[in-house]
Design a protein that fits this description.
This protein is of the alpha/beta class. It has helices at 31-43, 54-66, 80-88, 106-113, 132-138, 158-168, 219-229, 253-285, 321-330, 357-363, 372-381, 394-409, 419-431, and strands spanning 71-75, 96-100, 117-121, 143-146, 171-175, 183-184, 187-188, 195-199, 212-216, 290-292, 299-301, 306-311, 382-386. It has a seven-stranded mixed beta sheet, with helices on both faces. Strand 4, helix 6 and strand 5 (171-175) form a beta-alpha-beta unit. Helix 3 (80-88) packs across helix 4 and helix 9 (321-330) packs parallel to helix 13 (419-431). The longest helix is centred in the middle third of the chain and has 33 residues, at 253-285. Mean pLDDT is 94; it is low at 1-6.
Length: 432
């Protein structure tokens, strides 16, 4: 670390950064993963067939129990987990699926891959999870499902979502890609809806590089899911075999081997992140222009995939959020601003009338969904810090705070900078 107060000049402008020490590594790994992988390598049973294979079955059972579900089925990644779960829930092609406007594109594209129409609901400005009143206003006779996302470090209001779904007969698919091990009123996320979807992509709280899992307590849903991800093959003992054309969306046993070890690390990592997040939250409360997201009292176990806070440019000499993030990065703190787009205007979601006819027809002549809270979060307010920054010490947290304060103290020096100029400065620093 360069040392607090070592330079008042911002690193983006040529000064000495607050920190030049490495952060905790991610993915977390050690001798446990190595031993488990060597054992799997030697026994030669690497694949995902038959489904579930021995290690994926053992891991899925442990994961389901941890999340208070009867079943879990491992799949190839956290996008196909959403797609297959929607189809297994019986959501029909052409049906409307309500999704939050502020999330990764896969939440909506899974509906598209299922032949459905994603309908975008704005987010709660204090939690950045789906706004229940906004979602309720979008329900029509064509709506068949809602996909709440537990975002970054918050949990969507599962009580209100359950009530809304009950009134209108909607299926509920929880997108838990950020929320491994989180609990709402004492019960695991992924157990409140008809199904839950988790991702094990490299950046996630548990990872095998890629992978996903679907949780459910519905036997019939599991039967359909099994066939959909296993080339149409029926689950042994399926109560109501239903022939389908399925994909090969299986997870390999090599991945499951890593994930068994990762699951064993989860509780300790949650505890470390929780302590450091509390320290960072307390500091942010005292910094003018920064606001913590609201964590609902019904969250009884928080999962922190990204530590996220709201940025107000007026307290930082009027500089743009993206300029603030660039300055923070230059001080040695990994950070992101436009981590997610507002989906109604995302460049990654454009209608293709040939491939997605139902969605294209729904959008024909209609303006993008009006989701001002999502747009504000995506393009003006959000600052995202990766979870591994919280796996270290109190000193690591203090470095984050000092970097933020340093940028604030010298924000006048950044006033008027445009994105192109900021990028030039960043490239010049990298070349030194």
């Amino acid at each position: 670390m360069a040392g607090h107060g070592s330079s008042t000049k911002l690193a983006l402008l040529g000064g000495t950064p607050v920190r030049d020490k490495a952060w905790p590594q991610w993915p977390a790994r050690g001798a446990e993963e190595e031993r488990a992988l060597i054992a799997a390598l030697r026994d030669g049973d690497w694949g995902g067939f038959p489904l579930p294979n021995e290690r994926s079955a053992a891991f899925a059972a442990a994961f389901a129990e941890r999340h208070d579900c009867e079943h879990a089925l491992c799949v190839a990644n956290g996008t196909v987990s959403l797609e297959a779960a929607l189809q297994a829930m019986g959501v029909e092609p052409g049906a409307e699926v309500i999704v939050p406007a502020y999330t990764f594109e896969a939440t909506a594209s899974a509906a598209l891959f299922s032949g459905c129409v994603p309908v975008f609901a704005d987010i709660d400005p204090e939690t950045w999870c789906i706004d229940i009143e906004a979602a309720a206003a979008l329900v029509t006779e064509r709506t068949q499902a809602i996909v709440p996302v537990h975002l970054a470090m918050t949990i969507a209001d599962l009580d209100a979502i359950g009530s809304l779904a009950g009134r209108h007969g909607l299926a509920v698919l929880e997108d838990c890609a950020h929320a491994h091990g989180a609990r709402w009123r004492g019960l695991g996320v992924g157990s409140w809806g008809n199904a839950g979807s988790f991702s094990f992509q490299t950046s996630k709280l548990m990872t095998a590089g890629e992978g996903g899992i679907v949780t459910t307590s519905d036997d019939a849903l599991l039967d359909r899911l099994h066939a959909l991800v296993n080339c149409g093959r029926q689950r042994p003992g399926a109560a109501e075999p239903a022939p389908v054309i399925g994909h090969n969306y299986r997870m390999t046993d090599l991945q499951a081997t890593i994930l068994e070890v990762q699951l064993g690390r989860l509780d300790e990592q949650h505890a470390i992140r929780g302590r450091n997040a509390s320290r960072l939250c307390a500091a942010i409360e005292d910094i003018d222009g920064l606001t913590n997201l609201r964590i609902d009292d019904r969250v009884t176990r928080q999962a922190i995939y990204q530590f996220v806070f709201r940025f107000d440019r007026e307290a930082f000499a009027g500089i743009d959020r993206d300029v603030f993030v660039a300055a923070l990065q230059a001080e040695g703190v990994p950070a992101d601003g436009r981590f997610y787009e507002s989906l109604p205007v995302s460049e990654l979601l454009r209608p293709d009338s040939a491939r997605y006819p139902a969605w294209s027809a729904a959008l024909a002549g209609a303006p993008p969904a009006d989701c001002p809270n999502a747009e504000s979060a995506a393009y003006r307010e959000s600052v995202w810090l990766p979870h591994q920054l919280l796996l270290g010490t109190e000193t690591d947290v203090d470095d984050i705070v000092e970097a933020v304060l340093k940028v604030q103290r010298s924000a006048d020096d950044l006033a008027g900078l445009e994105s192109a100029e900021v990028e030039r400065l960043r490239q010049a620093r990298s070349a030194r």
